[in-house]
Amino acid sequence: MNSYIKPGDNPLLTEERKKCQFSTDILAAFYHENAQKIKRRHEIYQYYLENKELHDPEPTEFMDRYHRLENAERKVSLLKKHVKKAGSPLGLHYTMMIPTILNNADDEQKAEWLPKAQNLEFIGTYAQTELGHGTNLRFLETTATYDPKTQEFILNSPTTSAAKWWPGNLGKSSNRIIVVARLISNGKDYGPHSFFVPIRDPITHKSLPGVTVGDIGPKFGIPTVDNGFLLLNNVRIPRRNMFMKNAKLNPDGTYISPKHAKLAYGTMVYVRAVMIRTMSHMLGLASTISIRYSAIRKQGEIEAGKGEVKVLEYQTQQYRLLPQVARAWAFEFAGRYTRKLYAQFLGGDVDVLPALHGVSSGLKAVVTHQTAQGIEQCRMACGGHGYSEASGLPQLFATAVAGCTYEGENMVMLLQSARQLVKIASDVRKNQKPTKQNPVTDYLYKTSAATKCKIDQTTDPDPSSVIEAFEHVARRLTFAAFDKLEQLKQRGISAENAWVQCGVDLRRAATAHTRTFIARQFSNGILEMRDLPVQAVLKDLLQLYLFYEVLECDGDLLYDGYVIGQQIEYSKNNVYEALRRLRPNAVSIVDSFDFNDRELNSVLGRRDGNVYENMLEWAKSSPLNKHDVMPFHHKYLGKMMEDARQQSKL
Ligand SMILES: CCCCC/C=C/C(=O)SCCNC(=O)CCNC(=O)[C@H](O)C(C)(C)COP(=O)(O)OP(=O)(O)OC[C@H]1O[C@@H](n2cnc3c(N)ncnc32)[C@H](O)[C@@H]1OP(=O)(O)O
Ligand SMILES: Cc1cc2nc3c(=O)[nH]c(=O)nc-3n(C[C@H](O)[C@H](O)[C@H](O)COP(=O)(O)OP(=O)(O)OC[C@H]3O[C@@H](n4cnc5c(N)ncnc54)[C@H](O)[C@@H]3O)c2cc1C
Which residues hold FAD (predicted)? Predict the structure, then answer.
């Protein structure tokens, strides 16, 4: 039963919702983990509806960056009064400042900084990337030189390329930030460490002496985030402003190493682990918008004389949109795994860090890339109106695609994942067994159970046959890349250069490995669902996901004969059959993502489906339409046409 039906909705959408064959409440609670969270979501939305001061004065699409930032800060300052989590001017405060305090501050520092951060007594960000370096952290230039006489660090940007560049909310919002700088003590460089650095006066908000800070200017998207630049000119901070949970520096300047060399990178691993859910939500938003719109948009007759049909009736439209719904679910299940692993790490299990880094690196890269691709597919499937900012899809894409770059550029992250695969391949070649169980990589120690894939023509395909096929491809690509590395090294090429010359093969292996991981998490995740009608929908989504992925990597499956052409044909049929089964429930399935109209920010994706009249209202509210004739018309185009008319009379 679809609980999203309301009087006054577009009848075309209501008729879709009346076809619902499952409980949208149960599916929504499963996606958001429990019914309590759905209830809380609805309470917050109702509160938002009742508090007009939280609303935008006009569609933000019509605002310039100055007014967008002002509006965002206004709402955030109000939000603190209303709800804990806040919007974009505080994005980095919640996603990086607070996790860094939790992850890198010792107990005394946590006691001092955490309550103030949680109470929003200051606003922070995570300033690591520099104008000259983002990926290669070993070469960051900002220095923190210890002065044992005063027990202070002197922070300095030695060159222009050392300017911190990109950190979100650095330009105008933040006043207490995390700066990643090279720790130098007693003449020794200990590499990048994190420091708590005041950059603006807590009362006047003016930049402090030695601090040059500002906004880096317009970007591809995310206009309400003041990504900034920062130059430090011998700014002094107390010794105790170095985060000291892991590495420590004594008053005399002696350094104490952390238990694990990469603990300082913990915040990045945290964001990579949790951003998977954000990407799932973004893909869920895009598929909600495009499927609701496709259910009310009529275009073209299938049979002459029988009237125009909803574009969702076209198999091609289903093929463009429904796999995005399936992937949104797949990413949600995969993200649950990495969040659990991160919780284990935060709980003190440092040994889990390499496994967490390995899985979160590859997952972050694949999920952000497929999310961006999927949103763009949803946008294109909405025709011209998908290209309008009224749809919400261009901004959604511009926000999501940034995830391919931040938190570790995707190619670099896939190569990090490949490091783990190559180490395992080396162990296998030496007949070494895994030192500890790792459900993500254990399959690499096995050989392909069946020499031939078990995908066959059936109405109820077995997910394990597809997952084994993905394991087979990932194993083959991993060992092929490993063997190529070894051959190059045997020819006298250095390990580093061999790595670079195998980069594309390593990336392919990491992508195949991550695909296997996601498929396994999706297949395991739906087993928890006990409600049979909802379970049937999830099984259809899983079938669509698995066989859609088979078609995405069919060349790798056919390469060594593990799969034959007939099985690719079976896979195609399984995709079409899943589309057919999902079509009647399509609108109710995206309703179950439970995104409200504020989150959707889309005229096309409105819950009520009343698109056309609201599209016209939206367009009319454009500031351009305050004028029938633009004030400058006669100065330019008007004069040009008048001159042309006069000219033609001569
Ligand atoms: C809503 C969200 C808003 C997001 C806002 C955005 C924020 C940001 O973008 S913050 C800045 C993000 N920047 C990055 O992610 C930088 C990416 N670069 C790196 O992480 C590193 O430079 C590197 C991993 C690419 C290379 O680091 P390096 O120290 O050179 O390490 P190696 O490649 O030589 O590997 C050595 C060893 O360390 C392991 N390792 C690397 N990183 C981690 C980690 N984070 N956690 C655990 N282990 C890590 C790596 O696996 C190697 O191990 P072995 O293979 O066993 O030798
Ligand atoms: C919207 C947005 C928000 C951001 N927010 C923050 C923030 O809050 N805090 C922060 O510190 N940073 C932030 N960043 C910066 C981000 O983390 C960096 O842009 C990212 O780490 C990539 O570094 P880079 O831009 O210097 O690219 P580079 O490191 O210069 O890489 C450029 C390209 O070179 C290639 N490349 C580089 N190294 C390798 C390698 N080892 N192997 C193979 N190929 C390689 C890759 O193709 C890469 O795309 C943000 C960036 C964006 C776009």
Answer: 129, 168
* Ligand 1 centre distance from Cα of residue 291 (Å): 38
Nearest to 514 by CA among 405, 324, 400, 368: 368
Count, residues in the chain: 650
H or E segment to which residue 237 belongs? strand 235-238
Residue 583, ligand 1, Cβ within 6 A: no
Percent of the chain at pLDDT exceeding 90: 88
Query: Which residue is catalytic, options 141, 376, 407, 468?
Result: 407
**Hey, whose CA ends up nearest to atom 22 of ligand 2?**
134
Q: For 330-357, what is the mean pLDDT?
A: 93
Q: Which residue has the tokens 């999830």?
A: 538
Mean pLDDT on 109-131: 96
Ligand 1 mean position, distance from CA 37 (Å)? 33
**Contact (Cβ atoms closer than 8 angstroms) between residue 497 and residue 557:** no
Strand 298-301 and strand 248-249: pairing?
A: unpaired
Which amino acid does the sequence have at 439? P
| Region class of 460: left (phi > 0), else alpha (psi between -120 and 50), else beta | beta
Q: How remote is the C-alpha of 527 from its chain's centroid?
A: 25
User: What average pLDDT does the structure give for the chain?
Assistant: 95
Ligand 1 pocket member 403 (CB < 6 A) = no
Q: How far, in Å, is the centroid of ligand 2 from the Cα of 566? A: 43
Residue 91 has what pLDDT? 80
Between CA 360 and CA 416 the distance in angstroms is 10
Amino acid identity at 170: L
Question: Is residue 622 lining ligand 2, measured as CB closer than 6 Å?
Answer: no
- Name the 3-class secondary structure at 176: strand
Give the position, in ligand 2's atom list, of the atom nearest the Cα of 128: 11
How much is the pLDDT for 85?
47
* Six-digit token string for 89: 């001017």
- Known catalytic residue: 16? no
Strand ranges, E, within 319-360: none
| Res. 566: pLDDT tops 70 | yes
Enter the DSSP assignment of 200. Answer: B
